[in-house]
Amino acid sequence: LQVHDVDVIRGLMGIPNAVCVVGANVIPNSSGYDEASSLFIYNNMHVFVKVDWSVEKDLYNIRTTRINFDNGYMFLDRTSGRTIFTKVDKNGNVTDLTDKIDSDMYYNELVYYIDCLENNKPFDLCPVNESADAIRIVEAQKRSADLRGEKIKL
What we know:
Order of helices and strands: HEEEEEEEHHE
Helix content: 25-40%
Largest sheet: 4 strands, antiparallel
Strand content: 25-35%
Distance between the termini: 17 Å
Oligomer: single chain
Shape: globular
Number of strands: 8
């Protein structure tokens, strides 16, 4: 469904207690859910993610993540042409964290893995068990979507 989003959320928040997903397959002959709304359930909070791959040549594709907490939220926008990463406290004070993003995360990840493979180095930044956890979460998401949004515990 959305393994990159899941990996970011897992890295920031850990493994959720449960997930609920409503998905739709709208592209004929596609091999999965083209649209999905996911809720990651933790002890004291929820993370909501919406994805949509159903529009060809999507000129207005947005790539945002918002994580709400009791006393504020974090907002990340990686839409093409702009990068915003902020945290906002309960009083509306904004802290700009954009400088914490050094470049394209996916590109950096590929460069890191290639370097590890070429130089026989261990994968210290993203151990295999963390990748397995992300896949386990995605599989729970798919199961939830297959069951029309049923809550799946992890």
